[in-house]
Write a structure and sequence with these properties.
The chain is built from seven helices and ten strands. It has helices at 14-23, 42-51, 66-76, 89-97, 145-158, 175-182, 202-213; strands spanning 5-8, 27-31, 57-61, 80-83, 101-108, 125-130, 163-167, 186-189, 194-196, 199-200. Helix 3 links the parallel strand 3 (57-61) and strand 4 (80-83).
């Protein structure tokens, strides 16, 4: 099994972005959706991008109109958008047509039906995370690994060139086992490496990335 890429999401502080980039994160994320404790302004997102040393930074949106989200991403210098909500494959194509990377979130209950063709577009990144009623995301709740594995296998049947990311409750202590059980292309964490919402723990962040990469940073 190849080593997955790692994404550190929910960034607010430039110094956390710089540390994540230095420690080997392949992607970073900021929350543009209004209302949560990790939400950033366009100016704050731009500061994270500036500190990221060229590592792609994605903006997470939930209910924002796609055109508005694309405008915010361009203003902040983001590399792409993570579409978290009732977005469609057409929305993802609009993001891609604007020259941005498009990720779409597929929220799964433990007993969810398998993904359908409408849930997946060839070549995109599909992020699997648990469905928690009344919450949009960032719950720190883990997705049952058998459900995640079944969804991943279904995505690969529907769209062999799509990549699959896994999120939800991933921590330095659990991410290696999740990788072994599910086999994602990308693992994504936010609260699992935090001291407080939007404030990353340098030690936890490094341990998470070391666990993903299978070696101690700097060896």
């Amino acid at each position: 099994m190849s080593t997955p890429a790692a994404k550190i999401c929910g960034l607010r502080r430039p110094e956390d972005a710089a540390l994540a980039a230095e420690a080997g994160a392949a992607y970073l994320g900021v929350i543009l959706a209004a209302g949560g404790p990790r939400t950033v302004s366009v100016a704050e997102a731009r500061a994270v991008v500036a500190a990221a040393s060229g590592v792609p930074v994605l903006g997470v949106v939930v209910r924002e109109p796609v055109a508005e989200a694309i405008g915010a991403a361009r203003a902040a210098g983001l590399a792409g958008l993570q579409l978290h909500g009732a977005y469609t494959a057409g929305d993802a194509r609009a993001v891609a047509a604007a020259g941005l990377r498009a990720w779409r979130v597929l929220r799964l209950a433990a007993d969810a039906a398998p993904p359908s063709a409408e849930d997946v577009a060839e070549g995109e990144v599909v992020l699997l995370e648990p469905h928690v009623p009344g919450r949009d995301g960032g719950t720190g709740v883990a997705l049952p690994w058998p459900a995640a594995r079944a969804a991943l296998e279904r995505v690969r049947v529907l769209a062999p060139r799509a990549r699959v990311a896994l999120a939800g409750g991933l921590r330095p202590e659990t991410v290696a086992a999740a990788i072994a059980a599910v086999g994602p292309d990308i693992v994504d964490t936010s609260s699992g490496v935090e001291d407080a919402p939007g404030v990353k723990s340098a030690a936890a962040l490094r341990r998470f990335l070391e666990a993903v990469h299978g070696h101690r940073a700097g060896r």
